[in-house]
Amino acid sequence: MNSRKLIALAFLSLFTAGLFAGGFNDAVDEAKPRKKQKTTSSSSGSNDPCVDACAEVCVRTAAEILAAGWLLNNLTCSYTRFPYEQLRPNYVYNVQNGSLKKARFSASTAFVYLKGLGIGNETIFEGLLFPVVGPYVENIIFSDKNEKEDGQDSTELGNIRIGGQLSLLQNDYLSCTAILQWSHWYLDSTIDTNGITIGLDLRSYPVYPIAVMWRINMTTFNNDLYVVDSNLEGGIFSRRYEVFAGWKYMSVGNESTNYRSDYWNGLYSGIRIHF
Fold it and tell me: In the list 13, 36, 88, 237, which could disulfide-bond 249, CB 3.0-4.6 Å?
């Protein structure tokens, strides 16, 4: 999936709402049988050695500047015990201080409702060590009310993702991490293989007691099947506890055929503890 498609899906998750019915397993089954279509790509380059050499130098210099900035920003990070401990944006410090800690963690649980799909619970544990990399574990389980199998009125679906995250930028006003996880659907799901999830987690603590977070992921399976989900939320702090609510989007499709079989929008709300 190219970047334009991912960006389009992300913006769709923020601005699209509506009545979209259909079961999750129906969407998966509809996406599976699509045949692959051959795609061609074209590339162009310069035949001038001087231009190529200058471009190489510019790219190398930019990469070195970005690498130096990344090291300076991340390896010098320290944290207070939790965001807004001093009732102002003071969570991330790019200084060495014995009173600050070098790792941070959070755990959350939320009630989720996706219109046309069902209700469920989403639980997340994440953090940063050293403070560059750290764990990112998610589990969501919900009841798919639109499916009826063997006389049952609903189908229970579960998805667990186990992996980690790498910090790209850390600041009170904008922090971003890249996520890489192993994904497994269980219970009554028709996705019978494991997948790989990649994504981004963006957080901001602009002014006490407000928090803003956006998490977007894409999981790919065999047969070019994919699942995209996005969480956009706002939170309010009371000491180390954060009460949050947001908008969730999820879709199922086939990457090779550029076909999206179904998608759902809905609300979620929960509580998070920072430590």
Answer: 13
Given a contact cutoff of 8 angstroms between Cβ atoms, the answer to whether 95 and 73 are in contact is: no
All structural domains of the chain with their residue ranges:
3-34+48-274
Each residue of 113-144: pLDDT tens digit? 998 888 999 999 999 998 899 999 999 998 87
pLDDT band at 241 (very low <50, low <70, confident <90, very high): very high
Asked whether the beta carbons of 230 and 9 are under 8 A apart, the reply is yes
The upper half-sphere exposure of residue 89, i.e. CA atoms within 13 Å in the direction of its Cβ, equals 14
Class of domain 3-34+48-274: mainly beta
Q: With contact defined as beta carbons under 8 Å apart, do 98 and 266 qualify?
A: no
Tell me the Cα Rg of the chain: 21
Show the tokens assigned to 143. 């009841």
- CA 165/CA 248 separation, integer angstroms: 21
Q: What H or E segment, with its residue span, contains residue 186?
A: strand 175-187
CA distance 246 to 176: 18
Name 194's Cβ contacts closer than 8 Å, sequence gap at least 6: 182, 183, 184, 221
Residue 16's pLDDT band, with cuts at 50, 70 and 90, is: very low
pLDDT digits (tens, 9 = 90+) for 186-225: 988 888 889 999 999 999 999 999 999 999 999 999 888 9
Q: Which two tokens stand for residue 109?
A: 């649980």
